Amino acid sequence: QVQLVESGGGLVQPGGSLRLSCGSSGSTFSTSAVGWYRQGAGKQRELIERMSTISATTYYTESVKGRFNISRDNKDTVYLQMNDLKSEDTADYLCNIVLRGGAEFWGQGIQVTVSS
Predict the structure, then answer these.
(1) CB-based burial label for 24 (10 Å; 0-12, 13-18, 19+)
(2) Would you tell me how many other CB atoms lie within 10 Å of the CB of residue 14?
(3) Residue 54 burial (CB count, 10 A)
(4) d(Cα 114, Cα 116) in Å, to the nearest integer?
(5) Which residue has the higher pLDDT, 31 or 82?
(6) Is 94 in contact with 78 (CB distance < 8 Å)?
(7) What would the mean pLDDT of 33-39 be, rounded to a whole number?
(8) pLDDT grade, residue 16 (50/70/90)?
(9) Do the strands 18-26 and 2-7 form a parallel or antiparallel pair, or are they unpaired?
(10) Is the pLDDT of residue 115 over 70?
């Protein structure tokens, strides 16, 4: 079983930056992909970025290209660096891990609000 916990969210002004972290516990050594999703009020959950640990490729949704960056350290913490934040980035952000056997795990989500 894997547990994920996000941190680093909060209120930021437009143009500002935040770095979200996703700590994991449990067996994550066989991770095939890590990713960040978000869900705004009244909207469907949206994949923002996903990094394959097998092919070392990264997918970015168009709206965050050049502004957001996903990374992972050697302690299985996944980060989302968010720069030049816009009001439309306001959402609940969730991290996601997919293991090589196909099992998928989610964090509980953390709120990011971009407002002046």
Answers:
(1) buried
(2) 13
(3) 9
(4) 7
(5) 82
(6) no
(7) 94
(8) very high
(9) antiparallel
(10) yes
